[in-house]
Amino acid sequence: MEGAAAQPDVALKISGPGLSGRPWRVAANGPVIRDALAIFGLDRAMFASNFPADSLVGDFDTIFSGFLAATATLPRSDRDRLFHDNARRIYRL
User: Fold this and answer.
1) Cα(53)–Cα(69) distance, integer angstroms
2) What single DSSP character describes residue 53?
3) CB 19 within 8 A of CB 29
4) Structure pTM?
5) R_g over Cα of the chain
6) Where are the domains of the chain?
7) Neighbours of 37 (CB within 10 A)
8) Beta strands in 16-66 (DSSP E)
C-alpha cells in the first residue's frame, strides 16, 4: 500500500475489510482501517460499501458503525471527508 500511496494520483476506497467466515469486528478491522488512513492520508481515502458481498461478514449497520467507531477519535471535518467529501471530489460528483 505504501508504494501505491507514493503515487500522488492514487486514492484509496476502504471497503470490504473483514476475514472470510468470521464476523466483522471493529477490534480486528479498526487497526487495518487506521493503518490505511495513516498511509494514504485523510485527503486520499474514502469509505465505501461492497454490498451484497460484504454481507458474508456482517450486515450494513455493523460495518458502517464499525467505520464510525474506527474513526471516532477524528474531528468531524475529517470524518466528513472520509464518508462524503473525498468521494464527491475524487469522482467529480
Assistant:
1) 21
2) G
3) no
4) 0.90
5) 13
6) 2-90
7) 19
8) 45-47
Low-confidence ranges of the chain (pLDDT < 70): none
CB contact set of 63 (below 8 Å; sequence gap of 6+): 18, 24, 49, 54, 57
Are residues 37 and 31 in contact, defined by beta-carbon separation less than 8 angstroms? no
Contacts of 65 (CB under 8 A, 6+ apart): none
Whether 29 and 68 have beta carbons less than 8 Å apart is answered as no
Question: Could you give the residue ranges of the DSSP H alpha helices within 1-93?
Answer: 2-5, 26-40, 60-70, 76-80, 86-90
Euclidean distance between CA atoms 40 and 5, whole angstroms: 5
CA distances from 82 to 20, 23, 28, 43, 88 (A): 25, 23, 20, 8, 10
Cα 23 to Cα 18, 30, 80, 86: the distances in Å are 8, 13, 27, 28
The pLDDT value given to residue 33:
95
Residue 62 confidence (pLDDT)? 93
